TrEMBL record:
InterPro entries: Fe-S_cluster_assembly_SufBD, SUF_FeS_clus_asmbl_SufBD_core, SUF_FeS_clus_asmbl_SufBD_sf, SUF_FeS_clus_asmbl_SufD. Residues 139-365 form the SUF system FeS cluster assembly SufBD core domain. Belongs to the iron-sulfur cluster assembly SufBD family. Transmembrane segments: none annotated. GO terms for biological process: iron-sulfur cluster assembly. NCBIfam families: sufD. This is Fe-S cluster assembly protein SufD. Pfam families: SUFBD_core (PF01458). It comes from Candidatus Undinarchaeum marinum.
Length: 398
């Protein structure tokens, strides 16, 4: 990594933004961890690896990251607090909310040290907002480190729809979400960056008593897309529903890592990933449902389905269960396969050409997944994105 990334550079940058001392310490802790961690390899066993030939962390130096990196726009109800995170750290007491969990790899540590963009969103106690908070991040620079913080106070309800577009070479986009007692956040993210972008996204939620978070992630852009969704079910009766989809083509690579940590009684997790791969694209799904000793009567489920549209496409699934309590219900399922040729033949005998039949089968593959999404505006956007990608499917490649 360039010498431009140093303790002195971070001190100067933090002072120029008038950041509190506790935040400077977190940045310096990130730098310390960055220097300790080995470079990422994205290899998870024999034959389970991704292509990272285009990944260059040298791009992520201050001169690139600390310029005007993106245009972040939002629309929200007037009663919701929405401001730049760089301003919020001066106005709000966020020490216990921001970077609550230490980084676990080199890219996360880099992000903690150098982030410069992002929003702070808070919904007041008892407030229910039916109009989604819409956030669009349009990347304008070579490298971007974006961090968002969301707080749903007790009994509140909020829907967030976040879209990430643009043509950076490197981007990290992390979010921390705190869902307090009996609150609910529905969080939908759509990533459609340039297929020359290396993209790393980590979303982590802390869910308290009788609270719920619904994740909805759609990834179709980026050359390399690394997506991590971690949910800590910390309060009794807390729930997570996570629905993620991807649609790869060309030489795109996707790395999905979904985790549900059951830390309290009567907690529920549902992790579902559905994807399609065309061309020479590749995807790895890693899932973990962890049920701790103090979490009896918990219910965890994870499922992954991938449809291979080309003989050159590859997918791997690595689901895991860690159960330290006997009084639980926990299971998983995976399915990776190609289009059913008998169904394709049947549709062609009814007058469809091969390409049209193939597109209709792919649409049918995603339709049950879309219908389960609880947010209508997200459902509509997701269907539009999938139909556009399906429109690019050509002849079968054997």
């Amino acid at each position: 990594m360039s010498s431009e990334l140093s303790i002195d550079a971070i001190r100067v940058f933090s002072a120029g933004r008038d950041e509190p001392k506790w935040l400077l310490k977190k940045r310096l802790d990130g730098l310390k961890q960055f220097e300790k961690f080995e470079a990422p390899t994205f290899s998870y066993g024999l034959g389970i690896n991704l292509n990272t030939d285009t990944l260059d962390l040298e791009i992520a130096v201050p001169k690139n990251l600390w310029s005007v990196a993106s245009e972040i726009t939002s629309t929200a109800d007037k009663e919701i607090i929405v401001k730049k995170l760089s301003d919020a750290v001066k106005d709000e007491d966020l020490k216990d909310y921001l970077f609550k969990t230490s980084p676990i790899n080199k890219i996360e540590a880099l992000h903690q040290a150098v982030w410069s963009e992002g929003l702070f969103v808070k919904i007041p106690e008892g407030k229910e907002v039916k109009t989604p908070v819409n956030i669009t991040s349009d990347a304008k620079a070579i490298a971007i480190a974006e961090h968002n913080l969301f707080i749903a106070e007790p009994g509140s309800k909020m829907t967030v729809v976040q879209k990430s577009i643009g043509k950076p070479q490197f981007k990290t986009a992390n979010s921390e979400i705190h869902v307090q007692d009996s609150a609910r956040i529905q969080y939908g993210e759509f990533q459609n960056l340039s297929e020359k972008t290396n993209y790393f996204s980590k979303k982590i939620a802390y869910v308290q008593k009788d609270a719920t978070i619904d994740w909805i992630a759609c990834d179709i852009g980026a050359r390399f897309g690394g997506v991590t969704l971690i949910t800590n079910l910390e309060g009794r009766g807390s729930k997570v529903s996570s629905r993620s989809m991807f649609f790869g083509r060309g030489e795109q690579n996707f790395d999905f890592y979904l985790v549900a940590n059951h830390k309290a009684k009567d907690t529920t997790s549902y992790l579902d990933v559905k994807g399609a791969l065309d061309g020479k694209s590749k995807a790895i799904y890693r899932g973990l449902v962890r049920i701790e000793k103090g979490a009896p009567n918990s219910d965890g489920y994870q499922n992954e389905e991938t449809l291979l549209l080309s003989s050159d496409a590859e997918a791997s699934a690595v689901p895991n269960l860690e159960i330290d309590n006997n009084d639980v219900k926990c299971s998983h399922g995976t399915a990776i396969g190609q289009i059913d040729k008998s169904k394709l033949f049947y549709m062609m005998t009814r007058g469809m050409d091969e390409i049209t039949a193939k597109r209709k089968l792919v649409e049918g593959f995603f339709e049950p997944f879309i219908q389960k999404i609880p947010v209508d505006v997200v459902k509509a956007d997701l269907k539009k994105i999938i139909l556009e990608r399906i429109g690019g499917i050509n002849e079968l490649k054997h």
